[in-house]
Amino acid sequence: MPRARKRPAGAARPDKKGPEGKRTKTENPGEASAKVENSSLQETSASKDCGKNLSSYWLMKSEPESRLEKGVDVKFSIEDLKAQPKQTACWDGVRNYQARNFLRAMKLEEEAFFYHSNCREPGIVGLMKVDVQFVRMMKRFIPLAELKTHHQAHRATGGPLQNMALFTRQRLSVQPLSREEFDFILSLEEKEPS
DNA sequence: GCCAACGTTGGC
DNA sequence: GCCAACGTTGGC
Questions:
Q1: pLDDT value at position A57?
Q2: Whose CB among A93, A106, A121, A162 lies 3.0–4.6 Å from A34's, allowing a Cys bridge?
Q3: Domains, in order of start, for chain A
Q4: Residue A116: which nucleotide is closest by CA–C1'?
Q5: What are the EVE domain coordinates in residue numbering (predicted)?
């Protein structure tokens, strides 16, 4: 279950058991708000610019279709995010330590793609800012298959998606993107679906 | 629903 | 600290 899943509103800690019921409202933005706790984060194409580029970009996966995990529905789509108070949610349910380290490394206001996983049409659906708050839908859905096509081409040509974590670190539910990766993906919005 | 890929656990 | 067994992720 390292996949991200959120709970309604101010959701609190991951392992709360129990009837999902109402959660007490927390002002705490949750793990995703991240203070940099830092550390030895893994080097990826996105994390190696040694300080000159202070911003980071992220991709966060969540499942938009219902699926029970230990009796709890892990579904959390971008529509669900929009429906939260302030369109903001707590990104809990991440257990993988590497993904958790990335959550801790996030800084407020950094931009993140919302990715729908384990569903009929996997792909990037929208943009969020770390808090985690809805920003906007993508101008068009960017399917996994299209990203993969570019990734494969870029491996040959040295293009921006050549090392994209979505393909090189599969199963990582929270992952960093370099600015080049982020900008390239944004540029796809303006193009015809391939 | 299948199952490959990969992470985690735990005995030794 | 190795590594086999087991569990999870997530595309298909």
A1: 97
A2: A106
A3: 5-14+22-34+53-187 (3.10.590.10)
A4: C10
A5: 56-130
Looking across all nucleic acid strands, the nucleotide with the smallest C1' to CA distance from residue A118 is C10
Q: pTM for the complete prediction?
A: 0.79
In the predicted model, residues of chain A with pLDDT beneath 50 are 1-52
Distance of C1' in C3 from CA in A100, Å: 26
Does A75 contact strand B, using a CB cutoff of 7 Å?
no
Written as one string, the DSSP assignment of A124-145 is EEEEEETTTEEEEEEEEEEEHH
Rounded to whole angstroms, the distance from the CA of residue A86 to the C1' of nucleotide B4 is 40
Q: DSSP code of A189?
A: T
Q: Is the CB of A119 under 7 A from strand C?
A: yes
Q: Which of residues 153-172 of A touch strand C (CB under 7 A)?
A: 170-172
* DSSP sequence for A36-79: -----PPP-TTT-STTTS---EEEEEE--S--EETTEE----HH
> What is the DSSP secondary structure assignment for residue A87, as one 8-state letter?
G
Q: What are phi and psi of A157, to 5 degrees?
A: -100, -10
